[in-house]
Amino acid sequence: MVMRHGPTTERGDPFPIEAHSFRISDLDEARAFCAEFYYDVDLDLLDKIRPLALAADLVRLGPVTVGDIQFGADVAIGADLIDAYHINMPIAGAIGSEHRGAITVASPRRAAVYRPGAGAHAGRWSAECRSLGIRFDRAVLEAELSALLGRPVSGPIRFGASFDTTHGAGLTWCRMINLLRSEIANPHSALRQPLVAERYAQGLLGGLLFAVDHQYADALTAHAPPVRPRTVRRAVQVMEADPTHPFTTAELARIAGVSVRSLQEGFRRHVGFSPMGYLQHVRLGYARDELRHPVPGRDTVAAIAHAWGFGHLGRFAAAYRERYGESPSATLRGR
């Protein structure tokens, strides 16, 4: 049984929001749920007494998916490949798992972290265990890190295998996630408003980067990145506010109140991209998110490329492959 709560926005709306509630007793349906919202998984029932009784209440705010999940029976679950950043944060019980050769036990006091490009396998997820499964789109999280540092980064982010959720930045982030979880079933929540949801999702992205150890952590906490000039910030803001607009460098220079040459030099020094390169960077991130979560019967590579301002499909495909290491059609097919 599937129940859907709250708005699901169409492309072109300010920010996509989805809320769902699942109650599933069939193994194949449970595997399909995991594939739709998380990853292709191997899921097997280990319990000889209790049947599967999957309960999952889930919310998706753009690039962030948070699911409150309990299987209701002992199961073994694993994914051969994770293509996003993922957190397991149990509310009750514990989950032991293997990822990149390390064994990690997630509990209500410690969350487990999984990086893209490898698999993860839990030997047993007990019937009593209830956990939040939190998925972050890889491109968007890496772009957020780049924005916080004020310079491009080369992913993936090498997060530590786990982090403490009982104090410091880990506790703060845990509370933010739990607030979102508590609002899943509230149809009147402010978090269902696209402008609020977008900023909250961005806070979750940034908060994770400060809560978990990684190779850029010292650079994030050592000092604030150099402040970009007002003119550069203005151009960045208008592009991020309306990434499908057919901006030109000349138009952005007029908006910023500087010459084209000055704007180009400002972006080179303070952003690491040209103005048009930065716009392409933003658009590619949104296009990838839609390719990974297409609307059946509507979304094609061409439709998504054109919707995000790419007029030439060949150049879109080449830029996409260079950044993500696969073709847009491969992403759309889920491979």
From TrEMBL:
Alphabetical list of PROSITE patterns matching this protein: HTH_ARAC_FAMILY_1, HTH_ARAC_FAMILY_2
Domain of life, source organism: Bacteria
MF terms in GO: DNA-binding transcription factor activity; sequence-specific DNA binding
Record keywords, A-Z: DNA-binding, Transcription, Transcription regulation
InterPro entries reported for this sequence: AraC-bd_2 (IPR035418), AraC_XylS_family_regulators (IPR050204), Homeodomain-like_sf (IPR009057), HTH_AraC (IPR018060), HTH_AraC-typ_CS (IPR018062)
Residues in HTH araC/xylS-type domain copies: 233-334
Cited Pfam families: AraC_binding_2, HTH_18
The UniProt record lists the keyword DNA-binding: yes
Listed PANTHER family: HTH-TYPE DNA-BINDING TRANSCRIPTIONAL ACTIVATOR EUTR, HTH-TYPE TRANSCRIPTIONAL ACTIVATOR RHAS-RELATED
Name of this chain's protein: Transcriptional regulator, AraC family
